[in-house]
Amino acid sequence: MKEESKNNQHSKENEIIEEHKKMLIMSGNISDFQLKNMKTWPFILFDGLETVAIDYDFSQVDTDEAQGTVGAGKVVYNLTTKEDVNEKEIETIRQWTRFLFWKDTQVEVKKVL
Q: Which domains are assigned to the chain?
């Protein structure tokens, strides 16, 4: 029974993520849920983090037909920290961000002094 409950919870979480992706496609704007997660995750992962600034762009401008539509996009985390950032933490935030948006979303993590 516990395994079935975990599967149901995981399924509901996936549905929520998919709904937010659909809202992004339709509106061209990320949701408060997506933004809150992106702002919170670095503080969970990185020690000694002072500030986080996030730049993102999901507009697709590769071709004339795609202009003005939403695509996998790019997210850049600008971290102000005195601590070193290790590759494992960077890879984790990349995976989480891609799960929140799309597997093709480009994710960069930059350390700002």
A: 2-112 (3.30.300)
